[in-house]
Each structure stands twice: as structure tokens, then as C-alpha cells.
Design a protein that fits this description.
859 residues; mainly beta; Immunoglobulin-like; 13 helices; 56 strands
Length: 859
């Protein structure tokens, strides 16, 4: 009981003490000052603030407790707190005093302060293009015609410098001597400028092209490497290495950071600065009037000066005049503004050549020339004149006297499969396969008279045709539009494709940019002549000793019934047994010609029906020393029926070639050629080239997907139509209708095309390049709210409206055949799509819904 009372009393005292009601005597002395005989002495925590004053940039994130530590005699884990932030605001410029405190277990408190100076951020370094050639950067957050880097990416250098890591930015040589700067990495963009901000050299690492005095325009440059200290370096891999920056000059570098080309600065730099020698920029800090570059009046810049060809002995060419033709240039007229730039009217003086020019001797002659502007600035340059043989010695396309020569394996005529392994592809009116749709390739159509009558410019996306007065009329179009017309070429016409992306060098394509871009005629009216190129259907007879004779022509009839007059005008007529067996019972031809029947497999001549002399030649009756051929009376034909009888005689595996009587029967006539084959005809092996004799019955269609005139051949089993959770391991292409409720294929970096109820592409989600296309943006835009590389499938599907469906050409992680085809053929908004899959899967005319693939139960 006493113990309980004592506890109660102690609790009461504690409560009263807490309430301040318990009486005590105030001695006026601090019990911890050591003066109080019965009291303990405690120390306060010590707070260390390092540094005690900090400067941060406005808007930066900062931890106010950074560098703040506490030591205490009693508590080992004591931490400080911000007891007064002094109104600190990282977004507002000013000076703030922050107070820190820490209290230990003995109720002793220590304090400390730090001063924060919030300063305005240093301005970005800004590059302004003199002439904006690509506005795509605007759509990605950049200012119009400008590219900016953070202030810390501006480097002032006074000596040779090599960086360890790839670094974008502006490198300024502030010394009085040239310096060499190297930034590692590949596939980026770099421009070297003089002190006035004018490009003196540029390197397009993304495309592996060098821009310099000899190669002044990026798109037509054939230089892929540069020399430094006796070594050769590829531009693609060393685009920012060994940059020789003149005194006061600059280098601008945009590294390949693995992002989007049009969002990391490379695209802007490529199209607005690197694009040509002499391009100019202004460099300065954002918001400051004074620039780092001071523009100076520039001398004229030569933009193109292609080699000039003159045929040996051609005295009609006045070289001092001819050498001035085709030279293009640009001059700033002494101002930064571009609206007064000069591109014509300047004087070019022709100097001497090395060696001395002689039109009678084949070889290369290098002429020195000088161009001067009105301000007296001069530019010296050279141009090469090549005195060529009277006729080409290799396959050559002659366009208005300029020769473009090709190795045998660089050019293809009517290839079954187009590819970038060719520099140039020629399609004639006899081509029956699938045309190669080559993005950014140059197409032009040559008429039967040898004159260019239509062209397609990838630089302006225009199809160009002449009006009644021969003036070019340009309309917006695509490669598919040109190829649609190519399928309707008349006899004697052909289409030439200068391939973009040729694995060797696409010099043919790039050399056409100048006449196509600079001339308002887009090459229309230019004359084309082919040398050592057999592009027309050809009949070649080769003897056992390797000698051969051939006959070719651009008026050939293949498995078609024509009138007698049209037959007489043909170079030759071809009929196959398959065409005959399909129900074509007869043909028409004029009399007194010659008909040759060959075995399609062996190429051997089986029979010759000589309608001119009325004799049959076969293995039992052939022309030898005694002419033992069979008279036509015994062979069952007449001079008028020789062709019909030969046609009726066709058996499986045989082909009939008729060489008609053209009425002249001169040395170059069809019948004359055929009759030379009669004697010892068994020695010949026949080859038919540059046309196809294969025959398919009407209505027969290869299975797959047509976009315009391009076909992606597919087995129906390779196409997943509304299949739930389908994968690229099982299917090559995926089709989803509006309303599909299953799981879409999981895929990134592929292509999805949305097709409307009329069967036309209306939207394209290009995941491979992160671009979205529709009627308003036919060339595509980078907009992450519309299309991303990882989400292109779901984004395309989310856009589907009633009556629409989508085709997914995925990134399969392997050869990507379907995706590669789609990138070339299925990104044109407005292109017509036709599906030839199984009959029940093909949309009805005017409709778009695709029948889903029948689901089968899986074990």
C-alpha cells in the first residue's frame, strides 16, 4: 500500500511539473554552465555545411541538404533538417539564406547556414541558317531555321584537341593558327566553317559523303573518304575526325546518338548546312545581339562542273564555248540575305589546260577557270574535258552528248527482280514482270523517237511532261504513278531507272540531279542513244564454235493475233505451244516469209518453213551440198500458208518465231536473216532474250498483295487475317479489320498501311523511321502522338474507322522481306491496294473488309 501511494505521488508531481503548477525555486543559474554544483554539462551538435555558399542555375533541381553533415558527442546517427529555407525558390533568381538545425537526445540544438545564389541560365549557343532548306526541324520543337545547343556544348579551343567521347556542339578555334579537332564516332554530321561562318568543308557521315571544293554539293558528291597525314579515312566512320579548323573558324558537330535523324540535330545540319560548299550560318548566344561570326562578302561558289565529253576528231566543238556550258554557281552579292543571290550573268574566264588541249588525241585535259563577281571576288576552279573515242567501248547511255558508261554487271534490262545491285535498270515495252519501286530513284521515259518524253524527279516529287508548246508541266506524283504509265509503253519506248542506293556508286543518279533540278524542262526533249546495249527482243543463233548471229527489233508480236499488215510491219512474231493449247486455234500473217520452230528446252531448231522458196527443213530434210530440203508441195504448205502450217505443227515444248516478208527484204530485213539459218541449221542453238515467252491463262493471278504495280508475292498461309495473338514466327504479313477484338501482333519498327473502303492507302504508320503519313503529310512527319517505332501497330489500329482495314508489314528480326518491300512500295498515300489471297479473303469491289482466316483448334 505504501508502495502504491509512492507511485501515485510521483505521477502527480510529474503532471504538475508538466503543467507548470509545481512550485520550484529559480536560482537564475544555468544548470549546464558548470556553475551549478549538482548539474550535468551537455554540448550541442556540430553542423558542417560544405560548401557554405552555392551557385545554381535557375530551374535546376537541387537538394538543400547536399553536403550537410552532423557530428555529435552523444548521438551517432543524428541528421540535420532545414529549419528555415529563407524562401528558397530555384525558379526565381536571387540570394537565399537557408538555416539548418539538429537537436540531440539531450535536447541540445546546433545550427548552421548556407547561402544559395540562383542565377539565370547561361544562354544556348544558336546556329542560324542563311537559307533554310528543310523545315522539318520546326515540327520537332526547334526554332525556324535555327539549331541550338546547351551553353556547355560550346567549346573555345586554342590547340589540337581529341575528345574521348562522341560530343555534339560548336567548337570555336579562338587562336591565330589552324588547329585539328577530332570527335570520335560514326554516322553523324559535321561542318567546318571559316570565321565568317561559311562552310569550307562538310562531312555527311549518315550517308558517307564529303563536301569540298571538288565535290561542292552533298547530293551529287561521289567522294566517300578524305585524306589526312597520308592516311585515308571513310567519311561514314570518321565524319568528325581530323577536322582542320582555320584560325577564328568553327566546327559544328551533331553526333549519332541512336535517336531520330530529324530530332537530334543531324537532319537539320545535313539539310541546311552540310548540303553545299559556301553555305553560311550565323553563330551566337541566345538573346545576345553580338555574334561570334561576322559575315563577309563571299566569292562565288561553283555548284556543278561535270566533266565534259568531246568525241575525238570532232572539230565542230569550240572548246572555249563548250566548256562554259553546264556550269552552275551561286554568289551572295555581298549580303547575308538570300533574295539577292546571283546565279547567272557572272564572267567566267577560261585559262590553259594540262596537257595542252588536242581534240585529235584521246585523253583527259584539265582546264583552269576563274569566275568573278561584281564586288571583284574571284574563285579559281578546274574542269576536265575528256576526249573520248568516236564510239563508246562499253555499255553507254548517251544523253544529249554526255556519256554515262557502265560495266556489264551494273546495268540490267527487264530484270525479274529489281535491286540496288544495279546502277541502272531499263524496262522496255515488252517487260511483263514486277517493276522495282526505288525510293528517291530517277525515272525517265524515252519515246520511240529517242527523245525523253516524261521524267520523275525525286527531289521535287514531281512527274514532268511537256505541254503543246514543249514546256514542262510538273504535277505532284510518285514512283508508282510513273510505273503505272510504264506498263502502257508503246512499241519502241522504254523506261530508265537511275537507282538510288546502288551498292557501288550511284553516280548516274546523282549526276542527273543538276540537269533535272536546275532546268525547268526536267530533261524533257533531251535525246538518248544507247551504245552496246541490246534492250529489245533478240533472236540469237550460236554455232558450236561459239560464233553467233542475231536479229533484234522493237516491234515484236508475242502470243497475239494481228492483221496481215501489222504482221508484215513486225520485226518478228513469237507464238508458244502453251498459248495455242489455251484455245488459240489460228494466227494471221502475210505470205512469203520464214518460220522457225525451236525446242524451248534445248534451244535447237526443229523445223524451218521457208515460205519464200517453198521448202521445209527438218532433221530429215536439210540443206547440205545437194539441198535435200523438202518441197512445200510435199510438206503440205504454200507460200501463203507457211506460217499457219508452222503454227498448227507446234507440239508441247516448242516455240514458233515468224520472220515476215516486209516487202523490201533487204540485207537488214527479218526474212533475209532467217533464211541464212537454213544451211546446216542443226549446228545452231537459239537464245531468245529481253522478252518473256511464258504464257498464263487469263484470270490466273499470283497470290499476294498489289500496291499500284508492285506485287509482294505471298502464300496465303503466310498472311494472318484477324488472328488473335499471331506472331512473326508464324506469319509474314498481318491484316486486321475494323472491329477486331483480339490481341494484335507484338512488333516494333515495322510498317502499317491503313486502307479505306475504296481500296486506297489513306494513312501510313512507318515504325521503321518513326514517321506518320496521310493526305496532308504525304512525305511523312515525325509526331510521337501519331506514330512511334514501338507502338506503330496499336496506333494504326486505333485509327481505324468503319470500312477500313490495316496491313502490317512487320520487322521480323531477320531478312525483313515484307518490311523492305513495304518501305519501297506501300508508303504512298492514295496508292491502290489489291489483295490476291484466297478467294474468300479478297474484298469485293468497292469494299474493304477482309475475310478473317478460319481459326483451327490447337492441341
Amino acid at each position: 500500500m505504501k508502495k502504491l501511494a509512492k507511485v501515485v505521488l510521483m505521477l502527480a508531481v510529474a503532471v504538475l511539473t508538466a503543467l507548470g503548477l509545481f512550485a520550484c525555486t529559480d536560482t537564475g543559474e544555468d544548470p549546464n554552465n558548470g556553475e551549478n554544483p549538482g548539474g550535468d554539462v551537455y554540448s550541442s551538435p556540430v553542423i558542417t555545411v560544405e560548401p557554405d555558399e552555392m551557385e545554381i542555375t535557375q530551374g535546376d533541381e537541387v537538394s538543400l541538404l547536399y553536403g550537410v553533415t552532423v557530428t555529435d558527442e552523444y548521438d551517432s546517427d543524428l541528421r540535420a533538417i532545414v529549419s528555415d529555407d529563407g524562401g528558397f525558390d530555384a525558379d526565381t533568381v536571387g540570394t537565399y539564406t537557408v538555416t539548418y538545425s539538429a537537436t540531440n537526445s539531450h535536447n541540445m540544438t546546433g545550427t548552421a547556414t548556407r547561402i544559395y545564389n540562383v542565377v539565370a541560365p547561361l544562354p544556348n549557343i544558336v546556329i542560324t541558317a542563311q537559307q533554310e532548306n528543310d523545315a522539318n526541324w520546326v515540327e520537332n520543337g526547334g526554332a525556324e531555321g535555327k539549331l541550338s545547343f546547351a551553353h556547355e556544348l560550346y567549346f573555345e579551343l586554342t590547340e589540337d584537341t581529341t575528345y574521348e567521347a562522341a560530343t555534339s556542339g560548336v567548337f570555336h578555334n579562338t587562336s591565330d593558327e589552324p588547329i585539328v579537332v577530332t570527335v570520335p564516332g560514326g554516322y553523324g554530321e559535321a561542318a567546318i566553317l571559316n570565321a565568317a561562318g561559311v562552310v569550307i568543308e562538310a562531312r555527311d557521315g549518315a550517308n558517307g559523303r564529303l563536301v569540298n571544293t571538288d565535290n561542292p554539293v552533298r547530293t551529287s558528291s561521289q567522294a566517300t573518304s578524305f585524306e589526312y597525314d597520308g592516311e585515308t579515312y571513310q567519311v561514314a566512320n570518321y565524319y568528325a575526325s581530323y577536322m582542320q579548323i582555320p584560325a577564328g573558324g568553327f566546327a559544328i558537330v551533331a553526333v549519332n546518338a541512336g535517336g531520330n535523324f530529324d530530332q537530334d540535330g543531324r537532319g537539320w545540319l545535313n539539310k541546311n548546312v552540310v548540303y553545299r560548299l559556301g553555305a553560311a550560318v550565323q553563330i551566337g548566344f541566345d538573346g545576345e545581339e553580338d555574334l561570334l561570326t561576322v559575315y563577309e562578302d563571299q566569292a562565288p561558289v561553283i555548284q556543278s562542273k561535270a566533266d565534259l565529253s568531246v568525241r575525238v576528231g570532232d572539230s565542230s566543238v569550240t572548246i572555249s564555248e563548250a566548256i562554259l556550258e553546264g556550269i552552275t554557281y551561286i554568289d551572295d552579292n555581298g549580303t547575308w540575305e538570300t533574295d539577292d543571290d546571283v546565279t547567272s550573268g557572272l564572267t567566267i574566264t577560261v585559262g590553259t589546260s594540262t596537257p595542252e588541249y588536242d581534240v585529235g588525241t584521246e585523253g583527259e585535259y584539265v582546264f583552269s577557270l576563274t569566275i568573278a563577281d561584281e564586288q571583284g571576288n574571284e574563285t579559281q576552279f578546274t574542269r576536265t574535258v575528256i576526249v573520248t573515242p568516236a564510239e563508246p567501248t562499253m555499255k553507254t547511255i548517251d544523253i544529249d552528248g554526255t556519256w554515262y558508261e557502265f560495266e556489264d554487271d551494273q546495268i540490267a534490262v527487264n530484270p525479274e527482280t529489281g535491286a540496288t545491285s544495279y546502277n541502272v535498270i531499263i524496262y522496255t515495252s515488252y517487260f511483263t514482270g514486277t517493276y522495282f519501286v526505288n525510293n528517291y530513284g530517277v525515272y525517265f521515259i524515252v519515246g520511240a523517237d529517242g527523245i525523253i518524253r516524261e521524267s520523275y524527279s525525286p527531289w521535287s516529287n514531281t512527274i514532268n511532261t511537256p505541254d503543246e508548246d514543249g514546256v514542262a508541266v510538273s504535277t505532284t506524283g510518285s514512283q508508282n504513278d510513273v510505273l503505272a504509265q510504264a506498263s502502257e509503253l508503246s512499241a519502241g519506248e522504254y523506261l530508265v531507272l537511275a537507282v538510288n542506293g546502288y551498292s557501288g556508286s550511284d553516280s548516274f543518279r546523282t549526276s542527273l540531279q543538276t540537269p533535272m533540278s536546275a532546268s525547268s524542262n526536267y530533261m524533257l526533249g533531251m535525246e538518248v542513244e544507247l551504245w552496246l546495249l541490246d534492250i529489245w527482243p533478240t533472236f540469237t543463233a550460236t554455232k558450236e564454235d561459239g560464233t553467233s548471229t542475231s536479229f533484234s527489233g522493237n516491234k515484236v508480236v508475242i502470243n497475239e493475233v494481228v492483221s496481215e499488215s501489222d504482221a508484215a510491219a513486225a520485226d518478228f512474231l513469237v507464238y508458244t505451244y502453251d498459248w495455242k493449247a489455251a484455245g488459240n486455234a489460228s494466227i494471221t500473217c502475210n505470205g512469203s516469209g520464214a518460220a522457225v520452230v525451236i525446242n524451248a528446252e534445248t534451244g535447237k531448231i526443229v523445223r524451218i518453213y521457208d515460205g519464200a522458196n517453198g521448202r521445209l527443213h527438218d532433221e530429215d530434210h536439210y540443206w547440205d551440198a545437194e539441198n535435200n530440203s523438202l518441197p512445200m508441195a510435199d510438206a503440205g504448205f504454200t507460200q501463203d500458208t507457211y506460217a499457219a502450217v508452222a503454227f498448227n505443227s507446234l507440239t508441247e515444248g516448242e516455240i514458233l518465231i515468224i520472220f515476215p516478208n516486209d516487202g523490201a527484204n533487204g540485207t537488214d530485213s527479218p526474212r533475209t536473216f532467217a533464211l541464212t539459218l537454213r544451211q546446216r541449221f542443226l549446228q545452231y542453238t537459239i537464245t531468245l532474250s529481253n522478252f518473256s515467252t511464258e504464257y498464263e491463262e487469263e484470270g490466273a493471278q499470283p497470290t499476294g498483295i498489289w500496291v499500284g504495280n508492285a506485287l509482294l508475292e505471298l502464300d496465303p498461309a503466310e498472311v494472318a487475317v484477324d488472328v488473335d495473338a499471331a506472331t512473326t514466327a508464324d506469319y509474314a504479313v498481318f491484316i486486321y479489320n475494323y472491329g477486331f477484338s483480339g490481341t494484335l501482333v507484338s512488333n516494333g519498327y515495322g510498317v502499317a498501311a491503313v486502307v479505306d473502303a475504296s481500296g486506297k492507302i489513306v494513312r501510313v504508320y512507318d515504325g521503321a523511321n518513326g514517321r506518320y503519313r496521310d493526305a496532308e503529310n504525304p512525305s511523312g512527319i515525325v509526331d510521337a502522338t501519331k506514330c512511334t517505332s514501338s507502338g506503330y501497330v496499336s496506333e494504326a489500329f486505333a485509327s481505324l474507322q468503319e470500312g477500313e482495314y490495316m496491313i502490317v508489314f512487320p520487322n521480323d528480326g531477320g531478312e525483313n522481306v515484307a518490311r523492305a518491300w513495304a518501305l519501297n512500295n506501300a508508303r504512298t498515300v492514295g496508292a491502290e491496294v489489291t489483295l490476291f489471297l484466297e478467294a474468300e479473303e479478297t474484298p469485293e469491289e468497292g469494299g474493304s473488309e477482309v475475310a478473317p482466316e478460319e481459326e483451327t483448334e490447337q492441341a
